[in-house]
Amino acid sequence: MTQLVKQKLREIIAAQAMVDVADICDATTPQQLGLDSIGLVEAVFAIEEHFDIQVPFNANEPDDPRFDISTVGAMTRAVEALISQNSA
């Protein structure tokens, strides 16, 4: 599941940032991709829709520890945790 989640998450983020998926790695930050708060919100909506999960993200509180958006790798781990909780 990890590779599939990682790949799809990168595709979603790349589409929002209008960059090539190959330009994204685990250490990439939203800021490096040029994603502003609106872009992040759009990415979160797409993530929720694709993975059928509820992401605890509030653009007004981007440092909320319930959904770490510091890097693509952190977002991947957070999405995987939410998927696991959802299927439990």
Task: Describe, in plain words, how this protein is organized in 3D.
With 88 residues, this protein is mostly helical. It has one domain (2-87): ACP-like (Non-ribosomal Peptide Synthetase Peptidyl Carrier Protein, Chain A). It has three helices and no strands. It is globular and about 35 Å long.
Structure summary:
The chain is mainly α and 88 residues long. Helices cover 53% and strands 0% of the residues.
Q: Report the sheet with the most strands, covering strand number, pairing sense and barrel closure.
A: none
Radius of gyration: 12 Å
Class computed from helices, strands and strand pairing: mainly alpha
Supply the CATH architecture.
Orthogonal Bundle
The helix tally amounts to 3
Distance between the termini: 15 Å
**What's the level 1 CATH class?**
Mainly Alpha
- Helicity, in percent? 40-55%
CATH homologous superfamily grouping: ACP-like
Number of structural domains: 1
The low-confidence parts are none
Count of distinct strands? 0
Strand percentage lies at under 5%
What's the average pLDDT?
A: 91
List keywords for this structure.
mainly alpha; Non-ribosomal Peptide Synthetase Peptidyl Carrier Protein, Chain A
Lay out the secondary structure:
Blueprint: H1 2-17, H2 37-51, H3 72-87
